[in-house]
Amino acid sequence: MTTTREDGSLFSKVENGIGTIEFGHPASNSFPGILLERLEKAISNFSEDTKVKVIVLKSEGEKAFCAGASFEELMAVENTEQGKVFFSGFAKVLNAMRSCKKLIIGRIQGKTVGGGVGLIAACDYAMATEAASIKISELSIGIGPFVIAPAIERKIGVDGLAELSLAAHEWKTAYWAKDKGLYARVFENIKDLDKEVELFAEKLAFYNPQALLEMKKLLWKGTENWSTILIENAAISGELVLSDFTRNALSKFKK
């Protein structure tokens, strides 16, 4: 089952040291601004919760993992300040994931676009199914993946970022993503994926919490400037979305 709520849904629970965050939206698990705010808060809360040893991030349903930010909200942007606020939504979530004191495991069951790819890249360890293809389509409408680019570059390098973002109309397979380092493992189906995610999370939950925290710090070393650079990049996208090129591209999607 997937949510029918216009603002989407987000549920969190803690069991045996594993904090699970599950988000959903009827539009292929995309993110309106309010849902991004809830995700940021949930990650921050788990970061400080002593009962949580490791976090699993997942989405509802068996199809798309995440379709990125809300397309309707993107089309509604009317000025640079609104644009900056819109693109800052994912920036704040990525920074929450970066600064989170707990390791985050991504459970990726299906296709992912745009900002959703940034979410995957900001996970400390991601596992996926064969159906979990990815695409960054921002350049095709005249903007760019500036907010999520640092997270993606950190995981798959500059060459991988270029290949993924410049081929804006091309889906990359789950095995391409694994070869590049975005996914740690790929499974044939959701059943096998869920089994391995559960087993892996259980193992991490029994490790020394202090050792896990130090490992988290090591993995994210050198990203301290993200608290400012991602917001600055959001402002770039906020200006580009008002360009004639992007306005013309977006107008083609209006009914």
What do these coordinates show?
By secondary structure, the protein is α/β, with parallel strands linked by helices. It is built from ten helices and eight strands. The strands form two sheets. It has a six-stranded mixed beta sheet, with helices on both faces. Helix 3 (80-99) packs parallel to helix 4 (115-122), helix 3 packs antiparallel against helix 9 and helix 4 packs across helix 5. The longest helix is centred in the middle third of the chain and has 20 residues, at 80-99. The model has no long low-confidence stretch (mean pLDDT 95).
Reading the helices and strands in chain order gives EEHEHHEEHEEHHEHHHH
The mean pLDDT is 95
Proportion of strand residues: 5-15%
Please report the distance between the alpha carbons of the first and last residues: 28 Å
- The low-confidence parts are none
Percent helix, as a range, is 40-55%
The counted number of beta strands is 8
Walk across the major sheet and give the strand order. Answer: 1-2-3-4-6-8
Over the alpha carbons, how many angstroms does the gyration radius reach?
Answer: 17 Å
